[in-house]
Amino acid sequence: MKKQLVIIGGGPAGLAAAIAAYDAGVRDLTIIERENRAGGILKQCIHNGFGLTRFRESMTGPEYAQRFLDEVNARGIKILTNTTVTKLTKEKRVTCINENGVFTFEAEAVILAMGCRERSKGALNIAGTRPSGLFSAGTAQKYVNIFGHLPGKRVVILGSGDIGLIMARRMTLEGAKVECVCEIMEHSSGLRRNIAQCLDDFGIPLYLEHTIAEIRGKERVEGVIIVKVDGAKNPIPGTEREISCDTVLFSVGLIPENELAKGAGLALDPCTKGCFVDGNRETEIPGIFACGNVLHVHDLVDFVSEEAEIAGKAAAAFIFQGRQEKTLIPVKAGENVSYVLPQRVQTGKDVKLCFRVKQALRGALIRVEAGGSIKTYRRIAVAPGEMESVTVKADELSGAQNVMISMVREE
Question: How far apart are CA 280 and CA 289, in angstroms?
């Protein structure tokens, strides 16, 4: 089957990209979603705080998703649910499987919007047994919010990502006792507002520079041994402490779902774990675009929607105008910056650069070097758990060989 545009993933990124592409003139498009209904992770995020940037109101995850589903349905955009994409080729052939069998789309353009998955306990190499009571934070969230099951009564959370922080509050509200949240880094990897609203407001302790050294229990978790770590993240002898619990939640990072991208021959950025893209979110293969958490992990869904709209409009332009010659210059991460996205920018147009810093700092200067010009932007406070952004004007890119973003302490 031939299609103008195929969007893989029916979460917030896929829905926003589809709306943007449709409004730019694309009518022959399909969204492919492997779950039984679209909406992605938002379906289980029943807490509020979504839409503050985009809609200027506080919404729950399902409410935010429904706004976009209503727009998709109003345009008659087709969503194939319960359909899994098994293969993507560089020729933009998308192979799918569902209850009707195996079939292939030949697309003029493809947008990758598959989101990300949680890093599991198996990646952490924690000593101890493998009893029941071990969950990723997102799995526990689905159990509580979708199925109405409480995973346990006494909980220890490893990792201070946003899902872990939100589940600390959620488990407390459902009657469980959250003993503590342990974070191996010297700073939390979640948003500051979540630390305040989910931990501080409920008196849940956050132990920075701590990790779980051992899990105890045979049939069911009976407790954990937590330990303080040094600067090299090695356990410090003599700092071990046992905490009794029946449940351990892991909130230790998210990994973009990029198996399809790798199968198509797309190289992945080792920092973001997503594809290399330009300002239009176009990958190295012309006509294949990426957006949302499959590209890099976002803090707020509002920013996912914004990025998806860029990809949707660019995909429409590719379909109607074909591949356009453009001059791209690399973007580099400088001092105290872990990554910058997009990794390449086009000269002659303004571009918004998103980046994350390596350390938390109060009173920081963001320095943007493009060609011979250097611009600085003052920030009251920065943290690795919160994405920053700056907009570089077209005239600043004129004649530049590359762009570099770095962060220094304000004098």
Answer: 8
